[in-house]
From TrEMBL:
<feature type="binding site">
    <location>
        <position position="106"/>
    </location>
    <ligand>
        <name>Fe cation</name>
    </ligand>
</feature>
<feature type="binding site">
    <location>
        <position position="148"/>
    </location>
    <ligand>
        <name>Fe cation</name>
    </ligand>
</feature>
<comment type="function">
    <text>Removes the formyl group from the N-terminal Met of newly synthesized proteins. Requires at least a dipeptide for an efficient rate of reaction. N-terminal L-methionine is a prerequisite for activity but the enzyme has broad specificity at other positions.</text>
</comment>
<comment type="similarity">
    <text>Belongs to the polypeptide deformylase family.</text>
</comment>
<keyword id="KW-0378">Hydrolase</keyword>
<feature type="active site">
    <location>
        <position position="149"/>
    </location>
</feature>
<keyword id="KW-0479">Metal-binding</keyword>
<dbReference type="InterPro" id="IPR036821">
    <property type="entry name" value="Peptide_deformylase_sf"/>
</dbReference>
<dbReference type="InterPro" id="IPR023635">
    <property type="entry name" value="Peptide_deformylase"/>
</dbReference>
<keyword id="KW-0408">Iron</keyword>
<keyword id="KW-0648">Protein biosynthesis</keyword>
<feature type="binding site">
    <location>
        <position position="152"/>
    </location>
    <ligand>
        <name>Fe cation</name>
    </ligand>
</feature>
<protein>
    <recommendedName>
        <fullName>Peptide deformylase</fullName>
        <ecNumber>3.5.1.88</ecNumber>
    </recommendedName>
</protein>
<dbReference type="Pfam" id="PF01327">
    <property type="entry name" value="Pep_deformylase"/>
</dbReference>
Length: 192
């Protein structure tokens, strides 16, 4: 089932998620719904807070982006094979490498894209959808997407990395999103 994406301004996006166990009610159905919602909204990552759940769960599919890059663009991300993965109760263990800029966007903050600086590599510990402990290192675009989704389960948004002047310049657009004055081609739930 395709779920509505929670829009900027809803307090759930600012709340750190709680760890969950394998007995979390309807977990496998929730994960399936998150994948369906991700693809229906043309996203590359989706965190549980974005669908109204304050839990430490997100899904990422960077392969769809990397597989569709032109050969010269693909060279920029050599060593990043992409990832399609469920992350439950994730914890970043380490961040490495030089920070690099990339224009990020967010399904919860439509129509706004800004250059955000993040490290090249991250090392993360998490449970997969079968509650098997995993530990992995990701780099490039995959690392960036995981960093972005990880921020969601910490109650952070990509716009939090912007300088005060830049935030001031996008304030009206953010207010419009909060008021539901934005058109998207996916289901959204706006703050009441």
């Amino acid at each position: 089932m395709i779920l509505p994406i929670i829009a900027y301004g809803d307090p759930v996006l600012r709340k750190a998620g709680e760890d969950i166990g394998p007995d979390y009610p309807g977990l496998q159905e929730l994960i399936a719904n998150m994948w369906e919602t991700l693809y229906a909204s043309h996203g590359v990552g989706l965190a549980a807070p974005q669908i109204g759940r304050s839990i430490r769960l997100f899904v990422v599919d960077s392969r769809q982006v990397l597989d569709n890059l032109e050969p010269d663009e693909r060279e920029e991300y050599a060593g990043d094979d992409g990832v399609k993965q469920v992350f439950i109760n994730p914890r970043i263990v380490d961040r490495e490498g030089e920070e690099w800029a990339y224009e990020e966007g967010c399904l919860s903050i439509p129509k706004i894209r800004e250059d955000i600086y993040r490290p090249e590599t991250l090392h993360i510990r998490y449970m997969d959808e079968h509650f098997q402990q995993q530990e992995a290192t990701f780099n490039g675009l995959s690392a960036r997407i995981i960093f972005h989704e990880y921020d969601h389960v910490e109650g952070k948004l990509f716009i939090d990395y912007l300088k005060p002047l830049k935030k001031k310049l996008i304030r009206k657009k953010l207010d419009d999103i909060t008021r539901g004055k934005v058109q998207v081609d996916y289901k959204m739930r706006f703050p009441r």
